[in-house]
Amino acid sequence: MSNRVEAEASAASPLSVGQWRWLMALVAVAGIVWILVSRVPPDAAQRDGATVAPMTGFLAPDFALTTLEGERAQLSDLRGSPVIVNFWATWCPPCRAEMPELEAVWRQYKDTGLVLLGVDQAESANVVAQFARGALGVTFPILLDTNLAVRDQYAVRALPTTVFIDAAGRIQDVKVGGPLDKAAIIDGVNKIVTR
Fold first, then answer.
1. CA 188, 189, 192: angle at the middle one, nearest 5?
2. In this prediction, what percent of the chain has a pLDDT beyond 70?
3. Which among 121, 98, 87, 120 has a CA at the least distance from the CA of 180?
């Protein structure tokens, strides 16, 4: 009877245990070869046009934009001061909701040298001025990213996005989404301002 069970088992499985091992080894080798062949080189993301978001601990990418008042503002000129860069738009409800909180924190910390830059996303200066300066009474500098180059440089995928940069020009925190409340903004400020 034992020979009959073995005969039925070998009839049900056309491959022996040794053959299964070889097949599994072959599949594993093919998988490793596929991974190595299809792997993207580390610099390919940049070559293919994809932008890698700036990371905490690294230098913030430099940029120059025009302010609402028509002046040129360049991030690297602010080296030595802690800087908050807030990407926003007037049509973005969370952006609108956090603007008064940003203004309050900026007023509270500006004597420490803190600079706050609101980087508007591709809107006309008139629309931005009516909203920021008129409706909200925001006094911190507003920059116009008319062609979204800075947004792309920072790989901003959601509005608002707020970047906290220390006096050495290094990113210490990035907060994506909002609206940020005063406590969340002060959390970022505490990472870049020394009292």
1. 100
2. 79
3. 98
Pair 103, 182: CB distance under 8 Å: no
What's the pLDDT score for residue 135? 82
pLDDT band, residue 46 (cuts 50/70/90): very low
CA-CA-CA-CA torsion sign (187, 139, 133, 54):
negative
Q: Are the C-beta atoms of residues 65 and 143 closer than 8 Å to each other?
A: yes
What is the pLDDT of the chain when averaged over all its residues? Answer: 85
Global confidence as pTM = 0.73
Q: Which is nearest to 120 in space by CA: 76, 151, 98?
A: 151
Question: For residues 79 and 165, is the Cβ–Cβ distance under 8 A?
Answer: no
Lowest-confidence region among 19-28, 33-42, 85-94, 168-177? 33-42
Q: In CATH, what number does 64-190 get?
A: 3.40.30.10
For the cut 50, the answer to whether the pLDDT of residue 13 exceeds it is yes
